[in-house]
Amino acid sequence: MSSDADAPVETTTASVEDLQAQIQALEEEVSDLREATDDGGQKSMTIIATKGTLDMAYPPLILASTAAAFGWDVVVFHTFWGLDILHEKKSKNLKLSAVGNPSMPMPNAVAALPFMDSVATNMMEKKIEDNGTATIEELIETSLDMGVDLQACQMTIELMGYDEDEFYDGVTTGVGAATAIQHMADADVQLMI
Q1: CA–CA separation, 188 vs 70, rounded Å?
Q2: Residues 60-109: tens digit of each pLDDT
Q3: What order do you get walking across the sheet with 189-192 strand by strand?
Q4: What is the tens place of the pLDDT at every residue in 4-29?
Q5: Alpha-carbon distance 110 to 108, whole Å?
Q6: What is the average pLDDT value for the chain, to the nearest integer?
Q7: Exposed, middle or buried, 125 (CB in 10 Å: 0-12/13-18/19+)?
């Protein structure tokens, strides 16, 4: 006479074996997918930089130089006010806007005073210097040295009346939105800052 307790053991053993077989099949499928998608090629990143303030110049340059340090192919497409980052004179005088900046420790009524952008900029520049943080110029040079393609939007150059000779040496000009979009379409990571 067989006991009812024996039946679940067989079902349990069969269920464990079925689960192990399913896990094995899934592991093989994941491995096949990894092999199919990992062509061993270079990772790529496209960053669109649209703002030309001191605080908004750092993120695209830090991310670009870091990704390049890991061997990534990196393009930073600068358009509209983002072109100020690539302009040798303007990049040395980027301001930090105090108005509407939620991180500023002052109300907007105070931040709107005519001299507050200069005060905020001076405070930030002092923090950068005291902390030993790289300047915008240093990050641009580092990025270019590491092979980052810093691109200046041709339409914006013409619209804003920029002189291409005033950009840092190594900046790519004559680039349009179509080129940026193509690189974005093929990139592993796309960011807009």
Answers
A1: 14
A2: 999 999 999 999 999 999 999 999 999 999 999 898 877 766 666 666 66
A3: 172-175, 149-153, 73-78, 44-49, 189-192
A4: 555 554 555 667 788 788 888 888 87
A5: 5
A6: 85
A7: middle
Structure confidence by residue, pLDDT tens digits, 142-180: 999 999 999 999 999 999 999 999 999 999 999 999 999
Helices (H), 45-175: 54-69, 88-91, 108-111, 116-131, 136-145, 154-160
What ranges do the domains of the chain cover?
1-40, 44-192
Note the pTM of the prediction, 2 decimals. Answer: 0.74
The fourth-level CATH superfamily of domain 44-192 is: DsrEFH-like (3.40.1260.10)
Q: Where are the beta strands (DSSP E) in the chain?
A: 44-49, 73-78, 149-153, 172-175, 189-192
How do 149-153 and 172-175 pair as beta strands?
parallel
Q: In whole angstroms, what is the distance from residue 57 CA to residue 193 CA? A: 9
Q: For residue 53, give the nearest of 111, 108, 118, 143 by alpha carbon.
A: 118
